[in-house]
Design a protein that fits this description.
2 copies of one chain form a homodimer. Chain A is α+β, with helices and mostly antiparallel strands and about 500 residues long. Chain A folds into 2 domains: about 300 residues, BirA Bifunctional Protein, domain 2; about 110 residues, Anticodon-binding domain (Rossmann fold, 3-Layer(aba) Sandwich). In chain A, the strands form 4 sheets. An 8-stranded mixed beta sheet of chain A has the order 2-6-7-14-13-12-8-11. Chain A has a 5-stranded mixed beta sheet with strand order 16-15-17-18-19. Chain A is elongated and about 95 Å long. Strand 1 of chain A pairs antiparallel with strand 2 of chain B, so a sheet runs across the interface.
Chain lengths: ~500, ~500
């Protein structure tokens, strides 16, 4: 009889572009989300958790024009005997689900509806280094009011949030612009909807990189870029390009100065004037609450990619330098963005519902704090009660129960106890502050050995016992004093 | 020219079997998850967050034997130009991903590895009332040790967790059984692998419902059930069925008594004796730590559906009664379950890796606390600063800023301020404790009006002002005293 072919073993790997998060990584993100939620909550925003799965129809942006609508999203067809099931997809952001939720539940929700949401979103994109297909977003939006006070509030809340999670004032800037002002500029230039407008917008978005002279070239005949390649220009005359340049360079020393410059840039455009009036309202409200240009400023170079913004747009940038992969200094850049989008709910209801909001890229913000050394310390592990005598397991369990009841994180070593060295290696891998040791001698005498692993590590580092004379790295104490002695060491090493 | 056909509007609905969670629902679940995580952490378990998406190959249980492997899971094929992409799926539990994570990262992880995980899982099942296709699980597992101390620890931790989230001792019971004992019973009966064994196991699982006499009938010729339908029996003789009955009814008044009865039930079976020895070890360890049968007991009727358990199995049951949809009393039942599964990691590595763990059904546990009235109070909303004079928005914003800085949740009304009644209706919908009111008279005099909405609601309820004489429902105070006066009302209504 032929030998039965063996099934190959499955590969133990995450799908491409996905990753796992362990211990301190999970704790640190959770801590940050808790801090952000507390600020949002204090501002009157209510939590919303929508399902991870939406109908492709409701998500909208990626409507299927082919059999498999998986461009940009992870999508699948519901099983149906006639192969006629609905297409479903994982949400790619938290804004599209909010629009669906508001349209669905608007009669039960307060108006305006302030809501926050935090959780993973999924993008079916090509993964790259540090670029994952599942990542966290943390959004706050106000639906149902056209008042600029809602936009000002979002900006103030964003500034408060950044400071709360540990970005000090001076290390960030919330920049505010208005789509209507840009539309006013394009109107003055005579650039209507279409490819020319797209090309101009793409050029404006490059201002940060190529500067005023670069934008001039790109709006005109074109430009030789750093790599030596020639980039075709939009083909505008110098005169036509002038309003764009005036707009991009309109940032003054104060909000008033910036607004005056913008007025000149939009000329007679009604929509431009409307945008400037909105920026002025936001600036006035923020100034009255004490949010000066050290925290929030009007900056006409903010564009924000998403097509659905209809008025104010926001961006939070971290202004400190970090080192890139090659050790060169660079600005950390954007960690949050948002703006006003008055048409998303209308898709469902036919009625315009004004809305504005912000999305924080939590993983980027965590990376920033780690880059600044403000996070990413090794988490302190549990106290490890070692096992010298297997028949005493119940006694060791009683020790950890006592420690836990005193609020101390603790565990019994549950691996093979034969090799005591492995138990201490385990405690080291767990980053344990203390090991508790008791064999039959100790049990008979009513004692335990306490091994101070924090001190042990320090001694190993400085390779001398001299300076630690006062504090023994292992000592015996009465069993009854175990909890108190362990606590002393943990508290001493917290300093 | 023919009128262009309009695109129909998308429907604003969640996909079938999914739902949204609002405000207090999200907060209450988060609070419970935080409480559970704190207990798990104190026991030395580390957080793990694996990706929501896994390869179908790694998930294993639902390997594709057809083109579309979506039986039970939500799955899709990665796009690939040759239509040859990997199948991916949403995780259906947190255990299968743990096995994959441990196999993938085992060289970097401590052994034993204690980990906890909490988050949504997805099941592609027919939705029903109260039965959703996305729900939360909250797991703790110890991988890499065969010691029964790991199983005992999981049971003790489960009892601690239930008490921590608000289920008092006496209202729950952790029941422990062992697959090996059941296998021993089947061995004694001469029932091998196959359909007969499956039928016997299914019958054992019905013991809770049909009792001893019912099981006797179902193991024999069959049984007329309550609806009048005849259920075919397994077809065993009375003599053959006896060991099952002895096993199911072996629960004694104490663990010792139960173990003695079980010994009789498994007779000469070696695997049965092994299972009993394991139960005995668990019972001894728990007794030494003070976990008596009022919290954790050996109960031979616990089966647990999943086929992958290889030793001890656990179930946490809430023992109090609730009312079903028709107002009849019934026991609340199971809220958590788990057991030892020694073969899941082996699928990947070829080497046996013992593991044991527990999964808490968080949504069911929340439902239990709500049924007992221990949760589900309406969340307190923010203080609402109303808008009497639109030109004073900056002043209203300053008021909420002051309140927030004092730690009080507060917001400005941002709807259309024309109809003041709507502002109070909004505050009511938000469950606000206080409304702050200031028009030009108040601004001129440096005053604000404070409206106590909690008291207002109480007066409306009892329809008399008499008993509330001491506490006016609306009063004027100096603008400088606003924060203190608001705080007084919030603190008084907390009582």
């Amino acid at each position: 009889m032929a030998k039965q072919k063996k099934q190959p073993r499955p590969k133990a790997i995450t799908p491409k572009g996905f990753r796992d998060y362990f211990g301190a990584e999970v704790d640190e993100r959770k801590h940050m989300l808790d801090q952000i939620a507390a600020v949002y909550h204090r501002y009157g925003f209510d939590a919303l958790e929508s399902s991870a799965v939406e109908t492709v129809e409701a998500l909208g942006k990626f409507l299927p024009d082919v059999d498999r609508p998986n461009e940009g999203v992870f999508a699948w067809q519901e099983f149906d005997e006639k192969d006629n099931g609905d297409w479903m997809a994982l949400r790619y952001d938290l804004t599209a689900p909010l629009a669906r939720v508001y349209a669905q539940h608007r009669n039960d929700l307060p108006t305006p509806y302030r809501r926050y949401a935090m959780g993973p979103v999924w993008r079916n994109e090509k993964p790259g280094p540090g670029r994952f297909r599942q990542f966290y977003q943390c959004d706050a939006d106000t639906v149902g009011t056209a008042s600029m006070a809602a936009d000002a509030e979002i900006c103030a809340m964003l500034a408060d949030t950044l400071e709360t999670v540990g970005i000090p004032r001076g290390d960030y800037l919330v920049r505010v612009n208005n789509r209507k002002v840009m539309n006013g500029v394009l109107e003055v230039m005579g650039v209507g909807e279409g490819p020319e407008r797209e090309a101009v917008l793409r050029t404006i978005d490059k201002f940060d990189k190529v500067g005023e002279a670069g934008v001039r070239e790109l709006l005109g005949k074109g430009r030789l870029d750093a790599s030596g390649a020639y980039i075709d220009g939009v083909g505008l005359s110098d005169e036509q390009a002038e309003p764009v340049i005036a707009f991009l360079t309109s940032k003054g020393a104060t909000a008033d100065e910036t607004l005056t410059n913008l007025r000149a840039a939009v000329g007679e455009s009604a929509v431009g004037a409307e945008g400037i009036a909105e920026l002025e309202q936001i600036a006035d409200l923020l100034a009255a609450q004490g949010y000066g240009p050290d925290r929030i400023e009007i900056d006409p170079s903010v564009v924000r990619g998403l097509g659905y913004y209809t008025g104010p747009v926001f961006e939070a940038e971290l202004t400190f330098e970090i080192q890139d992969e090659k050790g060169r200094p660079r600005q950390f850049g954007s960690v949050a963005g948002g703006g006003r989008y008055d048409d998303l709910v209308k898709r469902f209801t036919g009625q315009a519902v004004p809305a504005t909001g912000i999305s924080i890229g939590v993983d980027r913000l965590l990376a920033a704090l780690r880059a600044k050394g403000r996070m990413g310390g090794k988490a302190v592990g549990p106290v490890v009660v070692t096992v010298m005598d297997k028949s005493r397991l119940a006694d060791y369990q009683s020790m950890v129960t006592e420690l836990r009841q005193a609020g101390i994180r603790a565990e019994v070593y549950l691996g093979n106890p034969k090799n005591f060295g492995n138990q201490l290696k385990y405690a080291d891998k767990r980053n344990s502050p203390v090991a508790v040791i008791a064999g039959s001698d100790e049990f008979d005498a009513g004692k335990v050995q306490i091994k101070d692993l924090v001190l042990g590590a320090k001694i190993a580092e400085s390779a001398t016992l001299e300076e630690w004379k006062e504090r023994p790295s292992q000592f015996e104490c009465d069993r009854a004093d175990m909890v108190a002695k362990v606590r002393e060491i943990i508290e001493a090493s917290d300093d």
